Amino acid sequence: MLIEHAVTAADKLFYQLRKDIVEGVVAAGSKLSEAELASQYQVSRAVVREAINRLSTSHLIERKANVGARVVSLTSAGLDELYQVRESLEGMAARLAARHMPVAEIQALEALLDSHLSKVKGEHSYYQEAGDVDFHYRIVVGSQNKQLINLLIDGIYHLVRMYRVQLGMAGPRVTTAFDEHRNIVRAIADRDEELAELLMRRHITYSKHHIQLKLA
Fold this sequence. Notes:
By secondary structure, the protein is mainly alpha-helical. It folds into two domains: about 5-70, Orthogonal Bundle (Arc Repressor Mutant, subunit A), CATH 1.10.10.10; about 75-215, GntR ligand-binding domain-like (Four Helix Bundle (Hemerythrin (Met), subunit A), Up-down Bundle). The protein is built from nine helices and two strands; from the N terminus they run αααββαααααα. Strands 1-2 form a two-stranded antiparallel sheet. A hairpin with a 3-residue loop joins β1 (about 60-65) and β2 (about 70). The N and C termini lie far apart (about 45 Å).
């Protein structure tokens, strides 16, 4: 059944389709058919069209002449370029979080990691939903730099998550990555800006190498 309010329907489809792309339910590199998506998600083609346009701003969709809209492909070259930017910006976010993040937010970040611990140790997976339950999201917000938050959260965040979720959140790397998270939070709590940035940059570099091995 079609949802009466087109804006609400487009919002819901946008969030659901973004989640499905990030998690691989809609495969990387696949062509997006308005008719098929309208049927699958039970909305109008106009709603699908609006959602696809919004997904383009999240860098999850690419358009090519005579081809149409496709989900981005996960490639080694794409990973390299994306993670160069991510390393620089999230390193800066960690430095600024060490300077600005209130004690209560740091304690909440430590509690968040405590909540992740059993899953990491027991299942060898480290899936984190988007938003406040995502360690990296919390640090970006904790930077308190609006321009940086815009570049990361409103820019490349979900494309980064696409690589992380599909290729980087399972296997032996999980436990090591979790320990790296702990060390980053410790540096932030100690107000050691230089160390927080260094550890975040190193963490992202290690993650990139791990994902590159899977892509290869």
